């Protein structure tokens, strides 16, 4: 049965996040002839609208209000709710990003919808939508479906392949005037100050080079950054490294940090505590570098290198440079 699907297009620093395109790919899969609508918030979104239509949106609802240029819970909530009421979708998808994680439960609660969060796969089985999500810190997966009513889900980045861009596609674009209850917008973004340097976004990176307490100092992260740069990836960390003050908590991966699913995860000087594995064990290929052959990280690694990271990481960087740079 065909389904009308609504995707909230997540924007960061004015750019469309890849997970928005992944949501569109999932939407096209489940729509089965229904209309795929994307909604995008904020002024100056012309290129974004094109990207959305090239990647599967049949219709794009824009809300070009400057109050939506930076994310705030209240403004996004009000705009998204009004878009949902207008589109009346059977399925609503957002990325499992900071924005999706914040706005989705609020909308779901207000509209009395169920919410399946952090999904890694979406499929249609016997005409029913089935969502897969990790449980027990990534040790098992559960498949869920909704018996009736609107289905609302957040999708974990890097799990659903993006549709190839079809530049011949153009979506029907509609600007929606939303009304904001001014006193309901309780926050105002005056300035955005980045804690981390520019570079590849950790939660969407295809390659993550992560350091643990074994990195030993802030300077110890330099060889990891060099390797990440050669591979076009991002640097992450264990909580051990963050707690020791070697890096910022923004890099923390795990149960209480970011969840990543890159194509390649290189763990350097990380023991492999269950709380760390919760954030990276679904990576497609895991390489562990640790001088302790008994370290539990090796139990989830596809490739293990027993050795000193300060010798192994620069060697890998040099070898990758020969083929990639
Ligand atoms: P360690 O366990 O100290 O491991 C360091 C490793 O480096 C060792 O295996 C050692 O053999 C190796 N090593 C040392 N020198 C070298 C060298 N020169 N070359 C190669 N290897 C070397 N942790 C997270 O990561 N993310 C979380 O989100 C998280 N959330 C938590 C939530 C709760 C409620 C709790 C209780 C804990 C949480 N933790 C989390 C902490 C977690 O339990 C571990 O303490 C932490 O992951 C350990 O970090 P580590 O592996 O860097 O350090």
Structural key phrases:
seven-stranded parallel sheet; binds flavin-adenine dinucleotide; 325 residues; alpha/beta; single chain; five-stranded parallel sheet
Instruction: Tell me the distance between the termini.
Output: 49 Å
The sequence of SSEs as H and E is EEEHEHEHEHEEEEEEEHEHEHEEH
Rg estimate, integer Å: 21 Å
Q: Which percent band covers the strand fraction?
A: 15-25%
Low-pLDDT stretches: none
Calculate the mean pLDDT score and round it: 93
Structural class given helices, strands, pairing?
alpha/beta
Helix content class: 25-40%
User: Cofactors and ligands present?
Assistant: flavin-adenine dinucleotide
DSSP summary: helix tally: 8
Spatial sequence of strands, sheet with the most strands = 7-11-6-1-4-5-12
* Secondary structure: number of strands: 17
Shape: globular
Main beta sheet:
7 strands, parallel
| Subunit arrangement of the protein | single chain
Verbal overview:
FAD binds at residues 213, 238-239, 252-256, 269-276, 290. GO terms for molecular function: electron transfer activity; flavin adenine dinucleotide binding. Its cofactor is FAD. One of its GO terms (biological process) is fatty acid beta-oxidation using acyl-CoA dehydrogenase. Pfam families: ETF, ETF_alpha. By secondary structure, the chain is an alpha/beta fold. It contains eight helices and 17 strands. It has helices spanning 18-31, 46-54, 73-87, 98-110, 222-231, 239-243, 274-277, 309-324, and strands at 5-8, 11-12, 15-16, 36-41, 59-63, 91-95, 116-119, 121-125, 128-135, 140-144, 151-155, 172-175, 207-211, 234-237, 264-268, 285-290, 303-306. It has a seven-stranded parallel β-sheet, sandwiched between helices. A five-stranded parallel β-sheet has the order 14-13-15-16-17. It has a three-stranded antiparallel β-sheet with strand order 8-9-10. The protein is globular, with a radius of gyration of 21 Å. It starts with a strand and ends with a helix. The relative contact order is 0.12. The mean pLDDT is 93. Bound molecules: flavin-adenine dinucleotide (FAD). Flavin-adenine dinucleotide binds at residues 212-214, 238-241, 252-257, 269-271, 273, 275-276, 279, 289-292, 295, 308-310.
């Amino acid at each position: 049965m065909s389904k009308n699907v609504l995707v909230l297009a997540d924007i960061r620093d004015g750019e469309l996040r890849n997970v928005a395109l992944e949501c569109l790919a999932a939407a096209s899969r489940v729509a089965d002839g229904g209309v795929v609508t994307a909604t995008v918030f904020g002024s100056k979104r012309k290129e974004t609208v094109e990207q959305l239509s090239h990647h599967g949106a049949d219709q794009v609802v824009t809300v070009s209000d400057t109050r939506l240029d930076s994310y705030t819970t209240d403004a996004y909530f009000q705009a998204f709710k009004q878009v949902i009421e207008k589109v009346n979708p059977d399925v609503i998808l957002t990325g499992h990003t900071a924005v999706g994680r914040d706005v989705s439960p609020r909308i779901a609660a207000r509209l009395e919808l169920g919410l399946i969060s952090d999904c890694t796969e979406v499929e249609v089985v016997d005409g029913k939508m089935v969502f897969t999500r990790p449980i027990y810190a990534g040790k098992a997966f559960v498949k869920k479906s909704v018996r009736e009513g609107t289905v609302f889900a957040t999708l974990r980045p890097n799990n659903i392949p993006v549709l190839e861009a079809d530049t011949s596609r153009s979506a029907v674009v509609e600007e929606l005037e939303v009304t904001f209850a001014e006193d309901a917008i309780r926050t105002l973004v005056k300035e955005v100050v980045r804690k981390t340097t520019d570079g590849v976004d950790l939660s969407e990176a295809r390659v993550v080079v992560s350091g643990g307490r074994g990195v030993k100092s802030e300077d110890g992260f330099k060889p990891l950054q060099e390797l990440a740069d050669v591979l076009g990836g991002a640097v992450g960390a264990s909580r051990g490294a963050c707690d020791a003050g070697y890096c910022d908590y923004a890099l923390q991966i795990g149960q209480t940090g970011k969840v990543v699913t890159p194509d390649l995860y290189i763990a350097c000087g990380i023991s492999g505590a269950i709380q760390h594995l919760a954030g990276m064990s679904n990576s497609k290929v895991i390489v562990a570098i640790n001088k302790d052959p008994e370290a539990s990280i090796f139990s989830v690694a596809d490739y293990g290198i027993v050795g000193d990271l300060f010798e192994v990481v620069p060697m890998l960087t040099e070898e990758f440079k020969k083929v990639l740079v």
